[in-house]
Amino acid sequence: MSLPNTPEDWALFVNLALDQAYGRERHPMSIAEAAQAFSHSRFPAEPIATVRGGDLEGFEGALIRDPSRRKGWGIFFNAAEPSKRRARFTIAHEFGHYLMHRYFIADDRDGFYCHTAEVPVDATPMENPKQEREADRFAANLLMPPYDLERRISPFEATDLNMLSCCADHYGVSMLAIIQQWLRLTRLRAVLVVSRDDFVLWSAASRSAQGLRRRAFGPPDGEPVEIPAQSLAAQRELTSYPKEGAPMAPGVWFPDEAALEMAIFADRYDFIASLLLLDFE
């Protein structure tokens, strides 16, 4: 049987095997257990022998081959990361490297060392952005299978933070991860803006809103973009944001478009994420 060629196909391949072994209601299962079990079953000559936290100063995760140059592999995540959900994404990311990229590691290297997970590759400096993008896409589709998420939130229906929070709990992922996966699947126009100190760090959008996002926030290497003073994200006096969001008139986020803004303040990581729905009425 030929092996998959894309991150999405790899994630589907693994998920179907896990569904068969554990059932479709297995979420959120241990991603460490899944990675080890799958690798031992499909690649017994070079399995993932260990998955554990470690001291990875300056990195979030690593895929490292056995130092004795045997065929086994280890996945390591930053033990200092306080969020178990982010650690799960990191493990899934490294599992993606194992499946797709382990044969591309140069002989003088012992593996992959990866920076922050859950953040678009264009927003962070890294050595091989193509492979990092692929590992991120694999991780998202492994942890949040599209065929399962679309049963919970229809691609043709708007969502809200309560619904997204329930899905994040179901899959054992962060709100940032579930929002980005929802954006990949929805047919509606929606934009995610992540900001710090009133300036945009990075943004993402659903397929139908990519042009709108580019016009509003520009390329990642452009001039810094300030968030609107009238936006929820700019209201520093608020201790929490309304879960149902707040309507923003045309001219606030987008020149000719109204939007429903739902904001999340992640104090641990010092950023605000604004999910902007344009098709909300």
Describe the structure.
- InterPro entries: IrrE_HExxH, Rad_response_metalloprotease.
- This is Putative Zn peptidase.
- Residues 56-178 form the IrrE N-terminal-like domain.
- This protein is α+β, with helices and mostly antiparallel strands and 281 residues long.
- It has two domains: 7-143, no CATH class; 157-277.
- The protein is 35% helix and 19% strand.
- The protein is built from eight helices and nine strands.
- The protein has helices at 7-22, 31-42, 84-101, 129-143, 146-152, 161-171, 175-185, 210-217; strands at residues 48-54, 61-65, 73-78, 111-114, 190-196, 199-205, 246-248, 259-266, 271-277.
- The strands form two sheets. A five-stranded antiparallel beta sheet has the order 6-5-9-8-7, with helices on both faces. A four-stranded mixed beta sheet has the order 1-3-2-4, with helices on one face.
- The N and C termini lie far apart (48 Å).
- The mean pLDDT is 89.
